[in-house]
Structures are given as structure tokens and as C-alpha cells.
Fold this protein.
Amino acid sequence: MQIHPEQIARMLIKEAFDSRRIVVGVFIFVSVAVLVMGLLWPKYYAASTNILAEDKNIIQPLMQGAAVATDVSDPIKNARELIYGRRIMDRILEYGGWLEKNPSPADQESLVDGIKKRTAVSLVGKNLIKIEYRDTDPERAFNVTRKFAELFIQEGVASRAAETRAAYDFIDKQVREYEAKLAQSEQEMRQTRGSNLDARPVSEVELSARLAALNGRIESTTMELREAEIKRASLERQVSGEADVTAGITREGEIRARIGELQTKLDTLRLSYLDTHPDVIQLKLQIQDLTKALEAERRRPSKERGSSGEMSQSAMNSPIYQQLRRELSQTQVTVDALKARIAESQRLLREEAQRGKSVRSGDARLADLARDNQINREIYQDLLRRRERARVSMSLDNDRQGLAYTIQDPPTLPQAPKGPRFWHFVLGGLVLGILVPFGLLYARMHIDPRIRVGDTITKVHNVPVLATIPHLWTPDEIKQLSAELPVLKLALVATVAVCAIVSVLRLAQVL
Amino acid sequence: MSKIEKALNRARGERRSRGSAEPPAEDREPLPGTALIPEPRGELVRLEDISRMNQNELPLLDAEDLSRRGIIHPELVEDPAVQAFRDLRTKIILQGQGVNGVILVSAISKGSGSSFVAQNLAAAFAFDPGNTALVVDCNFRNPSLHRLLDDPSAPGLTDYLQDPDIDLSTIIRPVGIARYRVITAGKRREIPAEYFTSYTMRRLIESVRWRYQERFIILDGPSMADLADIRVLSELSDYVVLVGRYGRVTGAQIEKCSKEIGGNKLLGVVFNDEPRIPRVDWRDLWLRRWRIRPAGTSG
């Protein structure tokens, strides 16, 4: 059931009045307890210093790309690691005078824990690191804070230098390794090249072009050879055929020529002589004989004519025959030359193919080596570049030109203690003293299932409420109350007075 | 209820409706031990009865005494508790439509202050000069009414139940409040619950109910923890009023008790003892205190 806030307040006041002794008791207890807590609360003095982690100095843009400035993307983490680290803590222990009593290692550990708890490292601005240290002694707070800043800067620079140095060393080592690798691969390449001298790196295309050219030459030469051979065969045929013809033709022709000659002579003689002239008769006889011989020649089969005996001198002496013979011999020469050329070309081709094969195997090995060499060379060059950059970074850090820590705000000697002041406790105690009992009553109202509002019975449990009867104060109760209330009032006033007196005493620094 | 009783009740009802015409009966007190219930009287007679009753009154207690006993009185008009009781009384009268009845007041849990409510409800009834009230202490385990008497050891209900021959008038006792009578629990406390079921108890209730017409009988019953007694007593009574104390009873308890009683007889819950900051004229109180103390009177 929804209860109006005003109703709640009224109920709270009534309940508080009902259990007034407890309320007053709780008030006194709480305020006195808080007061005592305030008295016992240790006074802490805090000193703080701001350290600027500069990463934007003149050198950085100049060295952009050439050097890598130490990263300050997470300066607070670095700072915490450094400050809470054992190295700085040990020196702080020594410096703060905690070691004067020669504490055992366990005690030292707890001392260090205490210092860590009282030390706060936080990031104020973008790169502003704040170191705050609290201590019961203001002077020690100041000194320790100053020392913290000093050590932090010192250690920070040293650690960064060490870091860049380590980076340089590493890169340097890598460079050396690659150098050795490169030298080795080059040596190997030289050896491989020496073992097959002709194995110059020949490109596949070149080789195949050459092979194709040789093949082409062989083919064309073969063609030429064939032609020459055909020509030779034809000439041979012609030469033999011509002999036959010439032989036949030559006998008949000879005869005919003689006949013609004789006829001419006869005709000439006839002009001057009669037919009865012996010369003419002689001639006539001769012509008759020749005609008979011609006819015999004609009758004789042509076969017989050719093989009838050795080529006649006349055939031999035939100009055509002579020419054919000449050509035949020429063709023969050509055929021989072509054959020789083909053989040569084939040898060349074989050689070339052989060489191609050997080149290919040697070439693969060499190519491997060359590739390795290439990659190694690239990495090596990159590493060299990096090493140079590392060297510059190292010198940057060595010269404190890179990331620099500067004390922005030096610590000051704390004048007033930090943390809640005494009057906070006094006031807080009084306020708490009021809030706590009312809070408890409120909590009880909410948690307790027992009914405190009559309407609930009607509305929630559906049982009519006939009447809500307020407490009837009897005269005795009133009398008791009138005796009790002043006591309670006195207790309240006394509590407040005690708080006030203690505060005054505290102000006067008696307490 | 016997047949005779039923018949008698009916006759009584008729007579009551006839009202004033009836002549007054000669004797008001029932004969002890008689099974018959005395003749009821007409309304006109009642005022006379009351005036006669007034003659029996003890010297009336003053406001201070009443206040000390935790009983309201008309002078405390300003007190919200008095107003609450008056309001409660009016509601009950309206509920009963003017007919007087037997009202059982029972605490939902022990310590709810049911006796306080019962006594003050009776006092509120008695405010009215036309009404009388009788409180019967039925809470044998934790009786409280005897505190109102000067002689707490006077015979009461248990004595009567034990020995019905006792004159009823000896246990109905005035306490010094006008028109206000009580029957205390009596000396014998170890009365088992069965006594309530006895005929004697029923006869007692009936006889006191008709003793005066405008009399409201309030049974100051035990808490609802004694279910057996409550069942019997609620059987005897017309209405039941439950008392739950502020910050003491849970809703579950209330629901359970209302289920036990049943819807017909249950009038409702009285939410008792809500805390209140008293409105006191402290200055006056202090002055009185300092002035009166040296004189020797305490209060």
C-alpha cells in the first residue's frame, strides 16, 4: 500500500517519541563514537608534486621517422611501475629514516606496504603525473615526496636509456646474423656458378628460339636436299637416255651427213663431169652404200642401237650430253653439301638441347640462391636502417633529448593536515546521531511485517477497521514523561555540549 | 438452546416490541438457581431502573482517578482516544440498529490491550445516560477487571460458574462509574474452557442481558490464541470485536482471526494504541508539580 511521505514522516516522529530513550541513546552513542573517532583519527600531512612527462620537444619533429621516441601513451602505468618498484622503495625506506631501527625483512615489507598505501600516483593532465605522499610528519611527507620525484626522474631516464640500449643491441645482433647469412649465400652462389661455367643464366625463351632456328634450318636444308636429289635423279635419267638417243641419232645422222656430203660432191661433179665419170660413179656407189647402211641402221631395233657397244665417240662428244653431265656433277656436289649441313645442324641441335638441360638444373639452384640472397639482402638493408634509427634514438635518450621528465610543481611543506578535519567529525557525528536512529526506525517500518497503518487492514486484508485508538496517556504516564523528558533533554544538551567543548579544546590544541 | 428457551426468547421479543405498555415487573433480580429467565421489562421502565441503579452506585470516581485507571471519562473530550472510543461506540450501536447486544472483545495477539478496549468501550456506552454497560471478565488466564475494584478478591464469574446458587447481584459490581458494572473473573482461575459451554454460563449471559434493556454487555475475552474459549464465547455473543495493537500484529494474523470468527459476527478490528505525542501543558504541569509536591500530595 502506498503511504504518503508526510504520513511516513509523522509516523517516524511518533515512533521516535514512542522509543525516545533508544533514540536518544543511539544519538548519544553515535555522536560520541564519531567524536572519539575524530579524536583518534591520525593527522595526515600530504605533499604532492607534479611531473610533466614531456614528449613534445624540438628534437622529435626533426627526428621524425629516423628515431623513435620512448612511448608515453601510458605514462601513468610506467610511473606506477617505477615508483612502486622495489628499487625506489628501498631508497625511500633508507631516505625516510625507516631503516634506522634495523627492521627485519618482514617489517620492511610491511613498511613498504604502508608507504605504498600512502602514496598515490595519478594522472592529472594529459602528461602530468602527480605523486602524492601522506605522512603523519609534515616534514617527512615533504622530503619523501621530493625524493620520490627525484628518484622517479632518475630511474625513468635510466630505464628508458636501458630500454633503447637493449633495442639497439637486439637490432645490432640481428644485423650481424643477416650479414653472415648474406655472405654465406653469396659464397654458395659463386661456387655454383663456378661449377658449371656455361651455365650462364640463359633465359628459356632465348634457348627455345635458338632451338627453333636450328630446327628450321634443318628443315629447310632437308627440303633443299630433297630438291637436289630429285634434280640429280632426273639428270641421271636424262644423261643415260640422251646417250641412247644420241648414239642412234649420231649413226643415222653420220650416214645422212655423209650421204648429204657425197650428194653435194656428186652434184658439184655432175656440173663438170658426166655421169660416167669415175668420180661420179664412185660417188654414186658410195651414196648407194651409205643409203644401204642407213636403211640397215633404220631397220636395226633401237635397243640394239644403244647397247650395241660403247658409246660412240660422237655421242660422248654431244654438247647436250656434256652439259647434262656437268649439271649432274654439280647437283651431286650440292646434295653432298646439303647433307653435310643437315648433319651439322643436327649436331648443333643436340648440343643446344644438351646445354639447355644442364643450364636448367644449374639455373634452378642458382635461382634459389639468388632469391634467398635477394630476400636476405632486403631484410639486411631494412635492419641496417633500423639499427641506425635505434642508434639515433639511443643517443637521443642518452642526451636526454627524447622524452623528458620535468618537475612542474615541486612539493611544498604541508601546513595543514589532510583528510577529514575534526569539525567534520563533530558535525558528522551529530548529524549521524540524528540520522541513524531515524534510519533504523524507517528500516524497521519497512521490514517489519507488523501493521502500523490502520488503513492497511481494510485495504490489504479486507477486514474493516472499527477504530484506531491512539494511546491514552494516563496521569501517571504523563508524570513519568514529565520526569523523563528533562533527563533526555539534558542528555542531548550534554552531548552537544561535550562535542562543543571537545571542539574548542581541539581548536586550542589542548587535545 | 432448549426449546423452552427458544419459546421464551420469542415471547420476550414480542413483548419488547410491544414496548411501554408493559407494566414493570416486581423483581429485577433473577432468583438464583432458577432455570427461568426473569421477565423482561418495557422501555419506559428502564429509565426508572437506571435511576434505581444509580442509587446502588458507589461514590463516583473523579476524573483524575479514572484517568489513572486508564478509563476514559466525558471530561476528556479533547483527548483523541476518547473521541475514538465514542466513534467506536456509535458504530457498534449503528451496527446493532439500536438493539443492545453482547459484544466479545478479543485480542488478536497477547498484549493487544483488549481489556483496555473492553473497559473503555463500556465506559463510552455508559457516557450515555440512557445506556448501561456491563463488562464481564472472561479472560481467566490474565484477568484485569478486578483492578477496578477496591476489593479484588470479591467473588466473580468463576465463583458463579462453580456455584450457580450465588446471588447474581453479588457478582455484578459497581466500580464508581455511573451506569457501569463489572463481573470480575473471580478467585478460581483454573476454570477449564468447558465452563463456558455450560448452561450456567448461557443462563448468566441471558439473565444479565435482560436485566436492563439498554445494557451493553461486553465480554472481555481471552486472546485469539485460546481458540476453544473464543469459539464458545463468540457463540454466546452477538458481535465480536478484534483488537490488534499498533506494530504488534501482522496482516496474516488478522486474516486468520477474521476467518476463525466468520464474517457474520465479526464487526471489525480495533487498531489499538497508536503512538501519540501527548498534548500537555508542560508549564502548568511543572508549576503544579513544584507547588503541590511540598504540600505532600503526590499527584
